[in-house]
Amino acid sequence: MDPHRLAEDIRRWARELGFAGAGFARAPRPADLARLDAWLAAGRHGAMEWMARHRALRADPAALHPGTRTIISVRMHYTPPTAAPAQAVLADPRRGYISRYALGRDYHKVLRGRLRALARRIEAAAGRFGHRAFVDSAPVLEKPLAREAGLGWIGRHSNLVHPREGSLFVLGELYTDLELPADPPFARDHCGRCTACIDACPTGAIVAPYQVDARRCISYLTIELRGPIPEPLRRPLGNRIFGCDDCQLVCPWNRFARTAAVADFDPRHGLDAPALTALFAWDEATFLARTEGSALRRTGYEGWLRNVAVALGNAPPDPAVAAALRARADHPSALVREHVAWALREQARRRGAPPAG
């Protein structure tokens, strides 16, 4: 089959499967590896040790999946059209803010299933071929690959940005042994002199343009970190209990952002604007039931209670908040107890009451 025609068919099939765009790349640039090495050397990956593993696999796609010649990079919008407005939830400290990508079905499952469906369509047209789907699940430099595939530029907040569709999308890749025409890389950086994302970061995690220190990033602190959240960073978390979208919400390019084209991302269980006290009352069985098939499972139940406790500590003083916290003061987990104690002290401070003990 003519590779140029097949490439155009793949783009069309990708759109039919709900992807916002698809492009073709060979490998990341050496400069991308150099930036990764410098980031790791500075310790900015925090406790994410896996980021330092398998560097060779990131550099050489064929080493990760033997026979790889062309990488099909895809992106998919995730903002649910029915979700409560993000800024309104962030402005209400009695409610918990969950990053908009995590309100519905786990995006890993959504994209992986559709990438496999795309592979089946390719196979039906072109015959059997070697392939493997990845969605943030292996040593893949997904944003540099997406840039190389012409899907956008990497912005100052380190997320991929498309000039007509913003940055509120997730990425996936299909490594293939097909010889398809590579797209021209997206060469121009349209960030200009804008520093909106840097200025908006609640914890100062964007330490320089294009450089994020994960150890200060709210997404890292509320999702990847397994231990205590550093105390100086707890107040800046506000009511963000899973991830953070601030750098993208202020990005001027997201005035063009599109909503999700698939129903998988629709909010579940009212999690687009949930009351913090209600979330803190969940027992572990409820947590597991209401996060089934969701990215929220990543925190684990203890991490969930830790995050909600911090948000309750940051909430306006309220007897109902204090009562919810006291109900967990003797929780079996030392991690939860410590964050509950901090939250109770914060509630007392906000009331102007003397600290307990």
UniProtKB/TrEMBL annotation:
Residues reported in the UniProt entry to bind cob(II)alamin: 58, 136, 160, 171, 219, 244-245
Signal peptide start-end: none
Any Gene Ontology biological process: tRNA queuosine(34) biosynthetic process
Pfam families for the chain: Fer4_16, QueG_DUF1730
EC number, UniProt record: 1.17.99.6
Organism: Inmirania thermothiophila
InterPro entries in the record: 4Fe4S_Fe-S-bd, 4Fe4S_Fe_S_CS, QueG, QueG_DUF1730
Record key words, sorted: 4Fe-4S, Cobalamin, Cobalt, Cytoplasm, Iron, Iron-sulfur, Metal-binding, Oxidoreductase, Queuosine biosynthesis, tRNA processing
Record's protein name: Epoxyqueuosine reductase
GO cellular component: cytoplasm
Cofactor annotation comment: Binds 2 [4Fe-4S] clusters per monomer.
Cross-referenced Gene3D superfamilies: 3.30.70.20
Active-site annotation: 136 (proton donor)
Keyword check for Ribonucleoprotein: no
GO molecular function: 4 iron, 4 sulfur cluster binding; cobalamin binding; epoxyqueuosine reductase activity; metal ion binding
Gene field: queG
Location(s) in or outside the cell: Cytoplasm
Name of the top EC class for this enzyme: oxidoreductase
Job of this protein: Catalyzes the conversion of epoxyqueuosine (oQ) to queuosine (Q), which is a hypermodified base found in the wobble positions of tRNA(Asp), tRNA(Asn), tRNA(His) and tRNA(Tyr).
